[in-house]
Amino acid sequence: MLETIDRLISYFCITIMTIGMSVATLVAFVNVVLRYLFNTSLPWAGALTSYLFIWSALFGAAYGFRTGIHIGVTVLVQNLKPKWAKVFTLFTTLIVFIFLICFTKWAVEFIIFSIKLKQIDIDLRIPFWIIYLCVPLSLAIASYQVFLKLIKIIKTPAQNFNYNQIMSTSD
User: Fold this and answer.
1) Which of 1, 51, 60, 90 has an alpha carbon 20 to 30 Å from 152's alpha carbon atom?
2) What is the pLDDT, as a whole number, of residue 170?
3) How many domains are there within the chain?
4) H helical segments located in the chain
């Protein structure tokens, strides 16, 4: 069950990243061509490009928790005995998980606050809460991915613990 959910979430993140980067690049390119060849531009292109890049980056970061591509200083944990490496990794991963949960809660509260404000982006004519929705969604996905890592750490016997095998997942 968790594997199916994980695959669907991964597919969702990859789709958001791909579509976001592709559309942002296309809009930016069209706007540059319009500006330099026809001395005009799309007034909403800059805002849309920025928002799409932000969505792509945040969902890319969430996906990074699944694949283990985030930068980390692992020299300490890789030089510990497997038992202590497991304890240290469990502790640090738990801290990251708690941080992500707290940050996700704050992001949801921010969305609720933004809905109440009823602010609208003047260039795109859409409510800001829709633009900001990428924050709690990507944080929730990141939280879920870190939760899966915690389960994997806990289930791995101490004598078999290997940081790289736990933290990296290939598709």
Assistant:
1) 60
2) 54
3) 1
4) 2-38, 45-67, 75-78, 82-117, 128-132, 134-155, 163-167
